[in-house]
Amino acid sequence: MSSSHTEQAANGHGSGNDIRRLKTHDMEIGITEAVQRHAHRHVARPKPVSQRRLDFEHARPRWIREMAAEAIGVFFYVYPGIASQASFFLNGTEPIFGSLFQIGWAYAIGIAFAIITCGATSGGHFNPAVTICLAIWQGFPWKKVPYYIFAQVFGSFLAGLVLVGQYHPQMTALATTLKEHGLSPNMLGGPGSILCSFPGPTQTSYGYLFFIEFFVCSFIGICIWSVLDPANPFVSPTSAPWTIGLAYAIMIWGFAGATISTNMARDLGTRIVAAIFYGGDAFNRYAPIAIFVNIPATIFATAVYELILRDSFAIIAKGHTTHKDGEEGLVRHLTKTDTIEQGVSNTLRGQHGDDYA
């Protein structure tokens, strides 16, 4: 990305609603907003780009690229996790084949790889709740929300389909054994639970399961929003994907035993696969909690961050955005708060690269 494009993104002129963004290679609004504030890197000079290549890329619909990136990213996120679960559960939970600790890391690294490989194209949402919250708070275009969510669910569906194909003999044998004992394959410990979440036989309190899911998704939502905050001095381009991945991992380590989903797309896509291969009871009484709670929980978490933790003046002072009414609006705010001299000084210092005090 050129320095001019980087400056536009940093100043808020590269938002999803800006038509100029559609004719550039700016990264879409999302996780990668945490990256595009930083200086460009020095890398080996690439080979010259042909006009034929430029014509091809110009003619390629942007929405197809974004949908493909979201689907591939969710695949990269979901597949390592369910593959680790398959290795662990299909081998009798023997420690040599894995553990809950390994499964948590598989999801964390998968999320990081998803952001690294596909985030530059689509913004790295990989979660319907994140897409909706970016539309509510950050100006992501609402018209893009439906096809982003479709792509995310489709990516999860593909991950589940590929896994079933690779482990088909083992998963079919396990399903047959369970059916012989009068049990459903879509239960904890069955092949369906490798693909999506099912509560244990003693977990009969759906209010408790709702509360756990709501807490877990809220925790993750606040972590994601803190990474996206331009005023956060602790986030670097290299740490952003891993910070988000670890937020998911520690929730898995803490609450997998209580049954969690964490992501509508991750659960719904693979749950459809479970229903196709192991029966329609994959959409049982618990399914609405696994599929839908993530959205209101993430909206709640991001509202907490936006209304309580967000410091918009700090963002302006660091030069990452501007006041909606320009310099006059900023001066009006500083005058109203009786901090005009200190505020102008701090703003000028922040925009020249100094710390905002």
TrEMBL record:
Originating organism: Coniochaeta hoffmannii
One GO MF term: glycerol channel activity
Pfam families on file: MIP
Protein known as: Aquaporin-like protein
Region Disordered, annotated ranges: 1-21
Places the protein is found: Membrane
Taxonomic superkingdom: Eukaryota
Entry membrane topology: Multi-pass membrane protein
Entry GO terms, CC: plasma membrane
Residue intervals passing through the bilayer: 68-90, 96-116, 146-164, 208-228, 240-261
UniProt family annotation: Belongs to the MIP/aquaporin (TC 1.A.8) family.
Chief place of localization: membrane
UniProt keyword Oxidoreductase present: no
Keyword Transmembrane helix set for record: yes
Keywords assigned by UniProt, alphabetized: Membrane, Transmembrane, Transmembrane helix, Transport
